[in-house]
Amino acid sequence: VHGDLSHAMEHEPLFFPHLRALARHPIFRSSLQPDALLPRSPPALAYVLSVPHGGVHVNWILFFAAAHGSAAQSAPDVILPEGEEHSVPWASLAAAVSAWRLDDPSSLLGILQEIHTVYTAAHSAHVQTVASQRLRFEVATVSELVGVETRLCEDGVRFSIPLDFRLEEYVPPCDAGIAGTDAGAHSVRLVLHCTAGPSDSITCKPSLLLSEYWRPQIGSLLLPAWSDDACVANYVPLVEARLRESLPAVLASAPLREA
Prior knowledge:
4-stranded antiparallel beta sheet; 8 strands; 8 helices; alpha+beta
């Protein structure tokens, strides 16, 4: 977790292990910051969790009750962005919530993983309502791939697709200490912002979603151009091939991050 956890350590140390445990998960290792917008008169604790989903970051708010008495035994509330509150069938989370234990740092992670699963499924179902038949076809062709996330946006659909590529193999020995060792530090996703065009054509703008270590080194890597006759499922292996061909040369010429 990149962010200031000193607030939790100072004011509610009982919750600190739960927040620190998020740093080990590839989804929830994004920035975690105290929420200055919610009223937080003691003894409550609120944090903003920036969750990557569908190629964007979505702010979820974790709201902890007092770490005193019976309230400390209650699972934290998770507040979704305005307009998305109904995207999660909260009743289906009863088992995960009932597993919450203040003395078990993995229990918060379990709740968030379950929320993320049903949140992703809800957005996938929502994407099926897009007007463009071609975009619905593209969604259908990648829906069976593991880990794919889709979101409706104002002018189309945004895809976030995990690539079959092992970036950790390219970390130089001198950078091992700052590159990180968990899977999330070396995962790479292809983000496609696709919009419908005339005659049921689509245009897609590709980019890579990378960790802080990799972003300055390969974030500007030139990806294959999107052609009119391309489809999302066939474009993914082209990107993976481009990475395998280009990455060694790009890294050889890129300055390494200093510790």
